[in-house]
Amino acid sequence: MAFNISLLQCCILVLACLLCAHSSQALEGNNRYNAWHMVDVKSLLPSSDCSSALERNFNGMTITHRHGPCTPGPRKYKTTDAQILRQDQDRVDSMHRYVNSAKKDTIGELLSVSLPAQHGISYGTGNYVVKIGMGTPRKDFSVVFDTGSDLSWIQCKPCNACYNQTDPLFDPTLSSTYSNVPCSSTDCTLLDSSSCSNGRCQYEVRYGDNSQTDGVFARDTLTLPPTDTLSNFMFGCGTNNDGLFGETDGLIGLGRDRVSLISQASSKYGAMFSYCLPSSSNNTGYLSIGTNSVSRASFTSMVRKSDTPSFYYINLTALKIGGKLLNISPTVFSAGTVIDSGTVITRLPPTAYAQLRDTFRQYMKRYPKAPSLSILDTCYNFTKYPRVKIPAISFVFSDGTTLDVDFTGLLYVSQVSQACLAFAGNRRDSSIGIIGNTQQKKKNVIYDIANQKIGFSPGRCK
Ligand SMILES: *[C@@H]1O[C@H](CO)[C@@H](O)[C@H](O)[C@H]1NC(C)=O
Ligand SMILES: *[C@@H]1O[C@H](CO)[C@@H](O)[C@H](O)[C@H]1NC(C)=O
Ligand SMILES: *[C@@H]1O[C@H](CO)[C@@H](O)[C@H](O)[C@H]1NC(C)=O
Ligand SMILES: *[C@@H]1O[C@H](CO)[C@@H](O)[C@H](O)[C@H]1NC(C)=O
């Protein structure tokens, strides 16, 4: 009798498992692993309305997409997908040059003159914007946030050269808490590229795409909405700024090294931050500085590379598609992989990308092909299909942790007739891989610097 009951229980369990596996296949958005995604094609398209669909009681700053309808201020520049992808390649190229020049430096060769390996170096654009406050009384600014660089800066009066920005320029003379960092201060030595003018420490950042900012290295009270403040925050007050910054007012550096926001905030808020990048440019996400709830997250170790201390490396060793591991030797990934908020499209070693792409094409055989879009070489024309079936893709790290890419992070869709696999290959296996922001969408990505690990959990953004 006891045997019968347990057999019955067993059957019920098996049935329940089958049922729930079945429903997870049909329901997007829950956390069970799906080998496939059934996707409503319309849901992949960018829209022209901003629907701020954040869950209430999230704790942090609102993230908007720079080129989307939620971005603050007027959008004078219409950026095309081809331009966004071109700028993305510029960023990746300069990250690769930075890594190479840093490597050469450690074996005693000359650094490339055009690309000093300095703190605060950044790589063009970056696509996500947050609002911060600076000074007393506080003024609000929209800035790009970037996990790939350290120094934060905003455009300041008196401007020798400023580009047009969203908000009025920051005027240091109107802030009672503002001070310049003197050349004699040890803080000035935190900058790799500094100079002295009238006793004031000057910073300079040159970007991979020849844009640049320089000005006074300063301190003032930083407000991180809604209510957190950081007094004596060190930042660049930029009086010569030129380049591809669009209309944002500056940049917040969330890199791993000294002078970054997170280095400066760690004693007050803990060495941790997290964000959720929205699935489309018509939604908003959040950026939260400091320790927050990390339940249900799975973590992988941060790897430190002393020659490029600003970057967050994680140990990617395998890829899964359609629920199956690809047959790629882990040594293919040995150049290292950076997780980055500013790169749009994930870059893989070409050996790994070729496998991923070929398998993806196999799975997608039934759909008509479309022309390549810039760096994206695997595109489909979904015009005739209201729904499409796309294989799931996951990153697998050396400690077994996996990051299952949300279905909104698999394709880069500029129009229904051209939906492209949102991954690309580097030129060489010896270049670092980058996990780009498209593949991080809708995840709560946790940078736990104190414990040297990066975590992923379901994000509370749409
Ligand atoms: C954009 O927002 C609208 C509501 O304003 C929503 O219906 C639509 O699905 C959203 N588009 C995407 C791609 O998320
Ligand atoms: C910046 O704004 C001013 C005033 O609105 C305008 O005259 C000027 O053309 C703009 N410059 C650029 C480069 O857009
Ligand atoms: C996409 O498919 C539709 C319907 O089959 C066709 O009319 C259209 O020309 C195709 N577009 C491209 C860019 O191939
Ligand atoms: C990264 O993964 C490789 C391959 O599994 C392993 O040999 C190496 O020790 C790992 N490195 C770190 C820092 O975890």
From TrEMBL:
SUPFAM superfamilies: Acid proteases. Pfam families: TAXi_C, TAXi_N. One of its GO terms (molecular function) is aspartic-type endopeptidase activity. Keywords: Aspartyl protease, Disulfide bond, Hydrolase, Protease, Signal. Residues 128-457 form the Peptidase A1 domain. Residues 1-26 form the signal peptide. InterPro entries: Aspartic_peptidase_A1 (IPR001461), Aspartic_peptidase_AS (IPR001969), CND41-like (IPR033873), PEPTIDASE_A1 (IPR033121), Peptidase_aspartic_dom_sf (IPR021109), TAXi_C (IPR032799), TAXi_N (IPR032861). The active site is at D146, D340. GO terms for biological process: proteolysis. Belongs to the peptidase A1 family. PANTHER family: ASPARTYL PROTEASE AED1 (PTHR13683:SF750), ASPARTYL PROTEASES (PTHR13683). This is Peptidase A1 domain-containing protein. It comes from Rhynchospora breviuscula.
